[in-house]
Amino acid sequence: MKAAPTDQLRLLDLQGMDTRLDQLAHRRRTLPESAELERVEARLRELRDLVVAAETERSDVERERAKAETDVAQVRDRARRDQQRLDSGQVTSAKQLSDLQHEIASLARRQSDLEDVELEVMERLESVEERLAGLVAERDRAEAERAEVAARRDAAWSGIDDEAATTADLRGTLAGQVDAKLVALYEKVRADQGGTGAAPLRQRRCMGCMLELTTVDIGRIAAAPEDEVLRCEECDRILVRTPESGL
Predict the structure, then answer these.
(1) Helices 5-29 + 180-192 axis angle, to 10
(2) Tens of pLDDT along 11-65?
(3) Do residues 164 and 26 lie in contact, with contact meaning Cβ atoms separated by under 8 Å?
(4) Nearest to 15 by CA among 160, 167, 229, 163
(5) What gap in Å lies between CA 38 and CA 33, rounded to an integer?
(6) How far apart are CA 59 and CA 55, in angstroms?
(7) Taking each helix axis from N to C terminus, what angle separates 94-175 and 5-29, rounded to the nearest 10 degrees?
(8) 3-class secondary structure per residue, the chain
(9) Nearest Cα to 186, choosing from 197, 171, 173, 176?
(10) Is the pLDDT of residue 91 over 80?
(11) 97 or 4, which is more confident?
């Protein structure tokens, strides 16, 4: 392929812009803020699940407390009614009096047992509510942290995207100034060679594969016409001659 030496030199500028675009894309994918955000979001999901579980547990314990309070109230009401009957003097039979006194004593023991159950349930409820309050506070802090990290990531993305857009515009303008066939060859080689399609020959070394050329290769390049498009024998990239080639 033949191409004007100036067009070949422009390939190096084009390569520089493509390299910068690749660097920006890599930086965008690997921002520390993105990894930090993933960590915060994972913790936030965990905390939300824990909050839901604690709220469910609280509801269950609240139902237990309501039942315990009802049980105590029922026994207390019955004991009060029995005591009123006993105190009224309406029960005169010795057996009925004995039975009533026995029932009042049994109800007192039953009430004491139920009040112990109620106290235990209330203590569990207090513990669950404290744990829930701690989880909610931690969840809220995680949500605030997520918003802050996301804002930093978005700001970094914005800066990267702005530079990438400016570079892409300049790249498009420059590509339009280079022979279309040369650009097409460059794009193909760049795709085949992991992002580098053209490299300068500097001090007899291909700056694409960083290998020093042989004496035979140097002789071939020195004898080639200025408009001939050269390729590195080792890496197959377009090799651009410059004043620093050492020919």
Answers:
(1) 40
(2) 999 999 999 999 999 999 999 999 999 999 999 999 999 999 999 999 999 999 9
(3) no
(4) 167
(5) 9
(6) 6
(7) 170
(8) CECCHHHHHHHHHHHHHHHHHHHHHHHHHCCHHHHHHHHHHHHHHHHHHHHHHHHHHHHHHHHHHHHHHHHHHHHHHHHHHHHHHHHHCCCCCHHHHHHHHHHHHHHHHHHHHHHHHHHHHHHHHHHHHHHHHHHHHHHHHHHHHHHHHHHHHHHHHHHHHHHHHHHHHHHHHHHCCCCHHHHHHHHHHHHHCCCCCEEEEECCEECCCCCECCHHHHHHHHHCCCCECEECCCCCCEEEECCCCCC
(9) 197
(10) no
(11) 4
Cα distance between residue 35 and residue 70, in whole Å: 53
Q: Which two tokens stand for residue 57?
A: 């547990």
Whats the size of the chain, residue-wise? 247
Domains and CATH numbers, the chain: 5-25+179-241 (no CATH), 31-175 (1.10.287.1700)
Query: How far apart (Å, rounded) are the C-alpha atoms in residues 122 and 116?
Result: 10
Question: What's the token pair of residue 208?
Answer: 């694409």
In angstroms, rounded to a whole number, what is the distance separating the alpha carbons of residues 241 and 221?
Answer: 9
Q: 198: closest CA among 13, 23, 6, 26?
A: 13
Residue whose pair of structure tokens reads 């010795």 in the numeric block: 94
Read off the tokens for 172. 């498009």
